[in-house]
């Protein structure tokens, strides 16, 4: 297992956040690392956390700048890799607005702006398959829904969301190829 996937979340933060989520101090907890793009510096880690009958996904976002060849997060809200965008999409309700297009994001249980500068997203745990297990029909449904939802955003709805990106594909391809990153090397670890 990759060392980054074997890392555990900070216990002090997890216990404080679980206390808020559960309305009481947790009676122990476990965190199982989940597969994600290890090259994107914005994602500090993703875990399935279990405690006192709660199963949730903890995703920690980081704005830390790295020079290790990974996709560096940006503090520019229009950059394709703006480090706070996912948190803002959940907190603003954008993730839920896409449901009418057949795209259902996990429900945000709580977000925490941590004292170390990271953001913790506590998300609903959703059973299902990974993209690798989808059928062609399932992928087609997702792509059509995503395209339709993106089309709505480009018709002016982004004026109210100043943190949406511009020129995503050009910036993304330029950054990922210059870092020597290919789609074959971006995810590692458990596929559940």
Q: How are the SSEs ordered, and which strands pair?
A:
Blueprint: H1 3-6, H2 11-22, E1 30-33, E2 36-37, E3 43-51, E4 54-61, H3 85-92, H4 94-97, E5 108-113, E6 119-124, H5 136-154, H6 168-178, E7 187-188
Antiparallel strand pairs: 1-3, 2-7, 3-4, 4-6, 5-6
Short description:
With 192 residues, the chain is an alpha+beta fold. Helices cover 30% and strands 19% of the residues.
Oligomer: single chain
**Hey, roughly how much beta strand do the residues contain?**
15-25%
* Count of individual beta strands: 7
| CATH-level-4 superfamily name | Phosphorylase Kinase, domain 1
Question: How many domains, in number, for the residues?
Answer: 1
Q: Give the helices and strands as they follow along the chain.
A: HHEEEEHHEEHHE
Largest sheet: 5 strands, antiparallel
Q: How far apart lie the N and C ends?
A: 14 Å
Radius of gyration, in angstroms, nearest whole number: 17 Å
**Helix count, DSSP H or I runs of 4 or more residues:** 6
Strand order in the sheet with the most strands: 1-3-4-6-5
What is the CATH third-level topology name?
Phosphorylase Kinase, domain 1
CATH class categorisation: Alpha Beta
Give me the CATH architecture, please.
2-Layer Sandwich
Q: So what's the overall shape?
A: globular
Q: Report the structural category.
A: alpha+beta
Low-confidence stretches: 183-192
